[in-house]
Amino acid sequence: MKSMILGVTGSIAAYKAADLAHRFYKQGYEVEVILTNGATKFITPLTFRSLTQNRVYTDVFQDDFPHEIKHISLATKADVVLIAPATANIIGKIASGIADDMLSTTVMAVKNKPVLIAPAMNTNMWENSIVQDNIAKLKKYGYQFIEPKESLLACGTLGKGALADLDDICNAVNAAVNP
């Protein structure tokens, strides 16, 4: 059985991550979900626990794993990491080596495994030079990006920044796991 970490960040597209989690679960993946604090404002841990039959992680300092360092054990166990949706914030954190929450800390502990990032944000944020520099930096380090699509965004803007189609995300993850 393949194991994956699904990182979900604080974007309106977080609700689509529930469908992703369930799709991967039905494909036979063991799905471990990590929600950022922002993600919990859009969708609850209970949703993911119900869809994956697994514990959901929200805090690096959760005290219910006394015999392991959970961000290390998750990073070691996973065959692939998917961050979907990925905000400009998490992309910037990873690009800067900042590890200050469960998701960024776990990603920093991943070694020699594919990490795929599916951004979702406002067009102006997507096109921001700093965000694009962070993406280029991460690509240089081997992180894979699943480009957002052009769509009518939650803010009412028509432009690039919507989460990629879920089929495209699933295909990219499966290709990364089974090259």
UniProtKB/TrEMBL annotation:
UniProt entry keywords in alphabetical sequence: Ligase, Lyase
One MF annotation (Gene Ontology) recorded for this entry: phosphopantothenoylcysteine decarboxylase activity
InterPro entries linked: CoaBC, Flavin_trans-like, Flavoprotein
Residues annotated as domain Flavoprotein: 3-166
The enzyme's E.C. designation: 4.1.1.36, 6.3.2.5
Pfam family, one: Flavoprotein
Gene3D superfamilies according to UniProt: Flavin prenyltransferase-like
UniProt-recorded name of the protein: Bifunctional phosphopantothenoylcysteine decarboxylase/phosphopantothenate--cysteine ligase CoaBC
Source organism (scientific name): Caproiciproducens faecalis
